[in-house]
Amino acid sequence: MEMKVKLVIFLCVFQFMAPVFGTGARLSGGTRRNLEVKKHLSQLNKPSLKSIKSPDGDIIDCVHISHQPAFDHPLLKNHTIQMRPNYHPEGLFTQSKTVGKKQNGPKPITQLWHMNGRCPEGTIPIRRTKKEDVLRASTIKDYGKKNQKSIPRPTSAAPEPDLISQNGHQHAIAYVQGDQYYGAKATINVWDPKIQQPNEFSLSQLWILGGSFASDLNSIEAGWQVSPDLYGDNNTRLFTYWTSDAYQATGCYNLLCSGFIQINNEIAMGASIYPISAFRGSQYDISILVWKDPKEGNWWMQFGNNYVLGYWPGFLFSYLSDSASMVEWGGEVVNSASDGQHTTTQMGSGHFPDEGFGKASYVRNMQIVDGSNNLRAPKDIGIFTEQSSCYNVQLGKTGEWGNYFYYGGPGRNPNCP
């Protein structure tokens, strides 16, 4: 009798608790994801010697240079850090700086976190990745990675880039192709374009490209971007990107995977740029140079005139282990057309090129690095945009700005429905 009573009680309790057990089973997927996120964060966020809280809410960790994410790469386990390039492109520090001294010319620029401190020598600043950053990605594996079809695709048969299925990515660019390129430089006007949807972004950058535009594309990219999905806000941020297989498995933004080796303790990849240009007001720009060290074969990046940031080891790439076959400069946005209409996400300043200085965004002093490691003006510059009524590009040339272009636009407008 007693046994029967116990059995009835057990069955009643089991029946009552079954939904709870079921919920527990369903939660285990979320628990597993949380554990995976935690593990991924521990890989990205290295132990720091000092942490700095930026006014925009970022935390910048000062990580010992030898503990940075690059050294998680199996081929970099015993790598000796190259603390300076063997060669700069000739003429790098003899450029005329008269533009910056003029009252209406571009002014020096820095990063927002500098207001609250600096990282000590022997460390590098790394923007701390938060749990919510990773959770915004569709999968943990996708976090910090670009969409596969995100750049204009040139074909050898066409004199201009031919866009095939660009998944809503739109561009306004200048480009050169048909030669061997060992680097590129440009000074890029900095704005804070408005983004319509969190899954859209707006950026301005240079691309150094090698290989075909199939599964073997090599790309090194650097510039500024506004990307709510990646960073969780609408701040304008310095970024880099690399891939050796057309964005399939390799590469990432900034230091969100192993690859780029940073040596500089003053500039943080992915950190907010400050100040920003104002319409009909002060204009600010950043200068970016990427070039291949002819001795070691590594691809170096310099920000402004004073900050050599670090390098991508040559072994990361196939085609770029030799040279690039194409260079592009300009803007890109994602047009998700979420409401069946063109996005209102702005490119550049959100104004068309013909509005000119102080209103439209510009890229000036475009240069390439040739086989003799010299900076020189590019030849036969082409321009391209998918929908000139939404975003456009306009080339120019002067003594002070060299080869330049204005670019951008508002997206949706009466002529771009």
Mean pLDDT figure: 87
**How many separate structural domains?**
1
Helix content: 10-25%
Radius of gyration: 24 Å
Distance between the termini: 79 Å
Strand content: 25-35%
Multimerization state: single chain
H/E element order: HEEHEEHEEEEHEEEEEEEEEEEE
Major β-sheet annotation: 9 strands, antiparallel
Q: Enumerate the spans where pLDDT stays under 50 for 5 or more consecutive residues.
A: 3-25, 93-103, 155-166
Total beta-strand segments: 20
* DSSP summary: helix tally: 4
Structural class determined from secondary elements: alpha+beta
Name the shape in a single word: globular
Folded structure, characterized:
By secondary structure, the chain is of the alpha+beta class. The protein has one domain (37-92, 109-141, 169-408). The chain has four helices and 20 strands. The chain has helices spanning 2-44, 98-101, 131-136, 228-231, and strands spanning 50-53, 59-64, 110-111, 123-127, 169-181, 183-189, 202-210, 218-226, 237-243, 261-262, 273-274, 285-292, 299-303, 307-312, 324-334, 361-369, 375-376, 382-385, 392-398, 402-408. The strands form four sheets. Strands 6, 10, 12, 13, 14, 16, 17, 19 and 20 form a nine-stranded antiparallel beta sheet that branches. β13 (299-303) and β14 (307-312) form a beta hairpin. The longest helix is centred in the first third of the chain and has 43 residues, at 2-44. It is globular, with a radius of gyration of 24 Å. The N and C termini lie far apart (79 Å).
